[in-house]
Structure formats: structure tokens, C-alpha cells
Amino acid sequence: MAAATQAMLSVFEPATEEILAEVPEADAEAADAAIARAKAAFPAWRGVSPGDRARLLLRIADAIEGRHEELAQLEARNAGKPIAANARGEISTVVSTFRYYAGAPERLLGDTIPVAGGVDMTFREPLGVVGLIVPWNFPLAITCWKVAPALAAGNTIVLKPAELTPLTALELERIAVGAGLPEGVLNVVVGPGRVVGERMVGHPDVAKIAFTGSTEVGRRIGEMASRSIKRVTLELGGKSASLVFADADLEAAAAAAPLAVFDNAGQDCCARSRILVERSVVDRFLELLEPAVQGLRVGDPLDDETQMGPLITADQRDRVASYVDDESRVAIRGHAPDGPGFWYPPTVLAPVSNDERVAREEIFGPVAAVIPFEDEADAIRIANDTIYGLSGSIWTQNGARALRVARAIETGTLSINSNSSVRVTTPFGGFKQSGIGRELGPHALDHYTELKNVFMATT
Ligand code: NAD
């Protein structure tokens, strides 16, 4: 009998529309095989001493650092990320993530709890095989937010990158094995979410799914996982608000606003795509915003000067364009190259009401809506009037107001007079339909371990 032909997946370069690579496409049987390898590798991996596991994570960090520029170039080409503005920084974050979680194996502390008749103690046990499902917008960074704490806690892994951007995850597997990670501990399978992803979610030997992606797919994964009470963490969509009060440093707020939404061409779950501005300063804010948007350098991701690249696919560009049908409300429009590539210019719509589709749905592209508000209570009401709760910003020079508003906004990650969202050392995740659980920081480890309580009688 002739061997079945291996199906191949074409991986594209969004700035050129050319094929960048062809990789073998996994099917459900390949997912089963990867899960079986991870299951077989688990007993030995959980038995590796904490110090040795820590040293291995440091070796992986060093090996990634040694290939930093090559990985940055690959990510820039495959995801259309500006090399200097984004891709190099993301690979540096990957290195930091492994170094940070290298501190974890020796610090997975338990408690002793006073009880009668003996000693009570808790342990943080690894879960077993964990299934990691990753989107295309920050391919290797989001992969490693999951891989590093999962390994640190003693789990083995089946990892499914997005079909559009699997190249750096495949490199990671090779790099990790080269650095000494035992075969079978990290298994990358590239295939369709509906086939490979669902097989992972439904498989009885997978203890947990850590998913980052759309709220729609997250909901489906949550439903499927509930059938076997499988652990899940979900990092989902967002429609984050930046609140600009009249007492803010408007120059600073306007200068920072473009990259808070147009960074990664708006394909960022933390994009501040709703810019809420106190009505009395809307005109002034738009005046200041205009040159900042017009000045954004959109173009070749491999050019060090580029600040914004293309969208990931033609479909994504068409979807984004569908939100901008009324030209009269385009308050500001930046530039984008002509010719091949999935380009869309940075676009600001104003004024927008929070009831409109552009203000309610995650656009995942370079389109921002400026929404006027009347006062502090109105700003909080509008900011919270969304199914999402991932990020947000507050711009004001009144410190008491900043903290009051920060406590009132239903969102997982907020910044005051800044638009930063993610740090390796601090927890990241969503309220409401933006997700369940936290990644990064010390808290991620809670989601890769199960708490065990042991009582030992001493009488
Ligand atoms: P997506 O949900 O379409 O896909 C994400 C991953 O899930 C991919 O690997 C895909 O193959 C897989 N998948 C698809 N259907 C599946 C199924 N039925 N079962 C199992 N797996 C399945 O998302 P995307 O388009 O790749 O990414 C964009 C979305 O990700 C946006 O909504 C964005 O907000 C979100 N996101 C969230 C965060 C966060 O941390 N909260 C970070 C980045 C992106």
C-alpha cells in the first residue's frame, strides 16, 4: 500500500503576499501522537530536580538569545511585524520570560497549616500534559508566556501555534531540544484549530488547555472543556478604552494614543481602540492627534524605521475595512503603501457613540473611535459598557481621580498616564468576556499547578 502523502501548509509573508515556507500539516492522529509523547515524557520530567529544571530554562533562554536576530527576522516576515519597533522586542521578551520562570521551580512553595493531631501541608503539583493554543498576532511571545511557566511547574506540553504563523514555534521546539529539553516534553503540532485544537480540547489525556485567541473560539473551548471538567485559562478579545480627562497632559496623551491602537497594525488584544475624551477637549485632542497619526511610518516590516506593518491576511484587511463605511466620519487617516501586501492606513473615526458597531466589536485592525464623555461618572459608565475587560488607560493629572477611576473600571490591566499593558513580571488577563485566569507574573504558576493538601498524623 502506498504511504499517504503528507499534507503541507503554505505560510505567507503578509507584506509581500508571497509564500514564506511550507510546513507539514498535522491532523487529529498527529495530535493524538503528540499527546501520547507528552504523556510518556511526563513522569521523568516532573521528576527532574527543581534546580536542574531551572538550569534548563536558563539554557533555553540563552539559546534563544543566541538566535535573537534570526528569530526576530522570521517573526517580522511571517507576522508582518516591524523589526525594530516590535519583533526584536518580542524576542527579548521571550528570553526574559524563560529567565523569569527559571526562578520558579525552586520557589513553588507550599504552606503548613496549624491543625490538631499532626502536620498539614500543601504542595503545588504539576497538572500533567497541558495543551497550549496560540493566535497569530504575537506568535512566539504568547507561546512562551505559556510554555515557560508550564515547564517550570513540571508539566509536559502539546503546543498548537496559529496556522498562519507557526514558524517561530517550530524553531522553539528545535532550540529547546538542542538546549537539553528531553524529547517529548515540548511537542509542536501545526494544524487547523477545528481539527488539531479540538482534538486537544477533547482528549482525556490533556489535563488543561491554555488558550489565547478570539472570544468566540474561547467560548467553544470552554464549553467543550466543561464536559470533562478540564482546566482552562482563556485570554480572549478586548475593546479597551483610553480615558482622556480635560486635566490630562493632552500633548502626552495624544502623542501616545496612536501606538496604543495602531501598534501591531491594531492586531493587539490590548489595543485602546476606544479613545474616550472629555467633551470640552475633544477638538484640541484631535488637533494634537492628527500629526501623530499622519506621522506614523507604515511599510516594510524589515525596515528599521517602520512603525506599523501590514495586516495578517487579505480577509483580515477586508474585515477591518467593513467598519469604515462612512467616509464623512473619518477624522484622521494616515498613510499606507500601495502594491502587494495587506495594507490598511491608520484611521481615526470621530465623534463616535459607544452604541455603534465600531465601538462595540473588536476590530483587530488600525481603526480607532474617539468617543466624547461628559464627566468622570460618564467616562466610567462608557468604559464599562462593553462585554470585554482586558486593558485600558487613564490620562489625568489628578492622582486621586486616577486611582478612583482605576478601581471603578472593570478590566484586568490598567495603566495611568501610560498605555503599557504587558510586563513579564506582572499578571495579565481579562475581566468579563476577555478571559479567565492570568498569565505572566507570579500568578501564572497557579494555573499550571494543582494544589494538594496532605495531613500527616503525629500522634
Ligand atoms: P482565533 O480564536 O481564531 O484562533 C486562535 C487559535 O485557536 C489558533 O491557533 C486557532 O487555530 C485555534 N482555534 C481556532 N478554532 C479552534 C477550535 N474550534 N478549537 C481549538 N482551537 C481553535 O484567534 P486569532 O484570530 O488567531 O487571534 C485573534 C484573537 O486573539 C483576537 O480576538 C484577540 O483579541 C485575541 N487575543 C487575545 C490575547 C489575550 O491575551 N487576551 C492576546 C492576543 C490575541
Helix/strand layout:
Blueprint: E1 8-13, E2 18-24, H1 28-47, H2 50-66, H3 68-79, H4 83-102, E3 112-113, E4 118-126, E5 129-133, H5 139-152, E6 156-160, H6 167-178, E7 186-188, H7 193-202, E8 208-212, H8 215-226, E9 231-235, E10 241-244, H9 250-262, E11 274-278, H10 282-294, H11 314-321, E12 330-333, E13 347-349, H12 357-360, E14 367-373, H13 376-384, E15 392-395, H14 399-408, E16 415-416, E17 435-436, E18 449-457
Parallel strand pairs: 5-6, 5-8, 6-7, 8-9, 10-11, 10-15, 11-14, 13-14, 15-16
Antiparallel strand pairs: 1-2, 3-4, 4-18, 9-17, 12-13
Helix pairs in contact: 1-7, 2-4, 2-6, 3-4, 4-5, 9-10
The structure holds nicotinamide-adenine-dinucleotide (NAD).
